[in-house]
Amino acid sequence: MQIFKFYPPLLLDELKNMFRIGLIINPIAGIGGAVGLKGSDGLEILNQARQRGGLIQAPNRTEEFLTELKPIKDDIKFFTLKGVMGGNSVLKEGFNSEFIIIDGIPTPTKLFETNSSFTKAAAKKMIELNLDLLIFVGGDGTARDIFESVGSKIPCLGIPSGVKIHSSVFSVNPKAAAKLLIEYYNGHSHLRESEILDIDESAFRDNRVVSKLYGYLLTPYLPTLSQPSKMESPQTLEEKNNQMRIADWIVKQMDNSENDYYLLGPGTTVRAIAEVLNQEKTLLGVDLFFNKKCIVMDLNEQQILENIKNKQVKLIVTPIGAQGFVFGRGNLQLSPKVLLEIGLKNINIIATKFKISSLPKGKLRIDSRDPSFDKKFSGLHRVLADFGEINIIEVI
Question: What residues are paired with 92 via a beta bridge?
Fold first, then answer.
């Protein structure tokens, strides 16, 4: 169990005229998610994502964050790069800003012409600017770049925009990031050492999870606004038996719905269903089953829509361990468009008793990248926790 060190909150009388915030956006973060690539690190994967029609998400996520900062707009100043790595967003939202110039980085920065070296160079430059906080928008790979560049020299906070967001350096969503910043500005939030976790994307796409702790960033922290690190399911006989009993119940439901198709989402808890059926299943992908057989594996958003058209479909998903996210972490191919096509009443959540016990504040979360859908899906949901055992848990 990680023991956090906490640091004193920022005091208003220590502010130097304006609250000085660095902003670095990884503009392609999350582009590989909906198209089933499970990440966006590396030029080859980026090119595949572009060919498949991957969506740009980071600018919208940044603008959600900036909109929520309007109450303290006159008290803050952003330091960022011109173009897609920050300047476009702060100018669009009308914030006071100053642009930094770095040798080797084009001015302005342009979409699909940025890379991790830009992030690292910008972060290193910001060490010289006497910032109060550095905001970055991206995923675990971006967090690693920030850590390698600034270490513990600047307090940092991540806005989640990637595919795999396992680290605890992020807020739970962009609006939460703004609220956390405001609380920190007002002296109501301490700093803590937050974990940076990342996985090997090549192993990830090969159906294996290889996770590593890379270090810690100092981040503002409040339990309702800060995201915990992802926790793997324990490799115990009790956990495995719990998964298998859940799977047995789902298979029993399949016996009573012969005309239904089943989409099985990522995770070991869901994979147990395929094990009971003696069928293959991708650990980290979305697979389609009919008559207890896997008929299509590792579908992206568009492929899901094509394969479920005019069909009665039930979706089985499990939340991310310790974080509690049902959608928006590691399963972006299950987009709001897909979920609305399936129908909310046909979404089935399963979770072992251990996983339920690890939920933050006993609640599930959603961060689908569509705030209107998140609001629609929020509320009380049935969660299958054992053979025929239903828990009612709130999704927020």
Answer: none
